[in-house]
Amino acid sequence: MVTLAEVAQHAGVSASTVSYVLSGKRTISAVTKQRVERSIQELGYHPNAGARALASSRSNIIALMMPLRTDMYVPVMMEIAIAVATHAREHGFDVLMLTGEEGPAAVQRVVGSGLADAIILMDVELDDARLPLLRASGRPAVLIGLPAEPGGLTCVDLDFAEAGALCATHLAGLGHRDIVVIGEAPAVYERKTGFAERTIEGLRGRAQELGLRVLHRPCEGSYAAVAGALGQVFTERPGVTGFVVQNEQALEPLLSLLRQDRRAIPEDISVVAVCPEQVALQGSIRLTSVTIPAREMARQAVERLVAKIAGESQGEVFLLEPELVARASSGPAPAGG
Amino acid sequence: MVTLAEVAQHAGVSASTVSYVLSGKRTISAVTKQRVERSIQELGYHPNAGARALASSRSNIIALMMPLRTDMYVPVMMEIAIAVATHAREHGFDVLMLTGEEGPAAVQRVVGSGLADAIILMDVELDDARLPLLRASGRPAVLIGLPAEPGGLTCVDLDFAEAGALCATHLAGLGHRDIVVIGEAPAVYERKTGFAERTIEGLRGRAQELGLRVLHRPCEGSYAAVAGALGQVFTERPGVTGFVVQNEQALEPLLSLLRQDRRAIPEDISVVAVCPEQVALQGSIRLTSVTIPAREMARQAVERLVAKIAGESQGEVFLLEPELVARASSGPAPAGG
DNA sequence: GTGAAAGCGCTAACAA
DNA sequence: TTGTTAGCGCTTTCAC
Question: Which ranges carry the HTH lacI-type domain (chains A, B) (predicted)?
């Protein structure tokens, strides 16, 4: 293994000079710099991560804590994780992947040991057990999601209330009066992550202003569950003309069932989805949707975190402005109402 | 920050004793051990990861290199990643997530710096640029996937050839004579990851033995692409009665289109999928399938890697035996042929 | 069964 | 602009 000392010797300079060439924390003459860089090349030197972390008390690692449930919401999570890793690298950080299984203790472990300089928490619950530990640790942290009490922590999330409101506005603008929301699985609401609730609240508020009638149905993503929900919905609300769907898994079953039921989209029924753009585009019909900007959330989370590590930022809540893109799945409410 | 020295002082023992209590690498009297453990508790001590890595030249970190493409094959990748992290923790390792963007250089970086003790590579291509670097580094590594030249490297993968063969056997056993394979997107074949090719080869070989006629169609996962492929297929092979699908995305569109086409499953058409179990179970019909055992692959990869880190294992190829589970989507070939 | 002490490879004062 | 040096907190050999 090549060490900094060997590089120094090979280049005929002191160890600190090599270190400073690497870090750029002090001005080095062009010649010296070149000599050192050449030696680094020739010897194939890689700074030892452990030694560096010990001496500088910075590991240049960000911990990313994933959700507890593997099955849920998967594409978004994956997209966020990859984007976090990518942006972290741009700032010289690597990403340590923590799963939920270890529980809140994982926070203490990686932070207490100095393994990670900072943490990003995904899938934050309203009253998340990890938050007290995080606050106590004093380490920089960013939450992707919005707990009930952000108090001092930095949060990045989509403004789901506004997302819901946008759906209501869009459908109302097209003349719909009676709409149904197919929501996430009941388990999601039970876990109290908040985003699903915020969506429906925002939607309900706007619906009231606009005189829309709303029925909300949490629903599993399986074909059978969607079929069941749909059956009930059409019984309870025969006049429904608009669907808002916040449940990736339920989307294809829903479209498929409506088709079987000879209800044309968007002529008879309009559908608006809250989902990642990719999902809105890949199905049997291009869906009008409010995009969940996974990458942008990841980017912001990393930027905020890096700023905090550098001591340049305080706890704040950043809600991304949602955008509704009208595509082929929504249109004017049918005349007969 | 609490250090080992402080714990030692608090417990009235030497630093090395505390270290040995922690590592268990030498016998300690019960009393001493208890005293030390109490001090650790009381002071809230966490061993410093950097110092530990420096002194022991072991980081207790495994690097997991994800695929280059975010969009492809996502649920399986996510499942593997989570399972790798979980099993790694069981062996005291954390997992560093590397994305493909950094390219093969990432291998050198994490391994050269001692950041990671070992690497797991996902989404391995037949002629993967990372492999020479990996071999040169001499670090323990496990590939999930099977390159053209494993030479000395440990590989874990599903025996896709056998998976393909199982599909042929199953359909032949039900009396089908004319089958179509809906494969992965052309891009997957172009990338030469090999698994898709191995499947079709295994299937073709068995099909020949059993007198099956086979048409293979790579296909994008979009609804439109599947519709196009299906149209062609029924023109070229009007007598087809069996489909084998190795393309998660294409599954729902296919089922939906067959339904629209008034072809009943399994009465008119049998469908066998190669996919994760979850995918086979969640759709509109429970699919006969060969399971892609993501978790098992992850588990094996970690076990092999840990063995290699401990110096107990050499390079070997482990192909997991596939299993076909007959469910509702396959049945006897229709009588009329 | 326990302690003393020499590093591990690097960073960052302090000096020049 | 560069060099000298004292640690960073831990592991592990050597000694008892």
Answer: 2-56
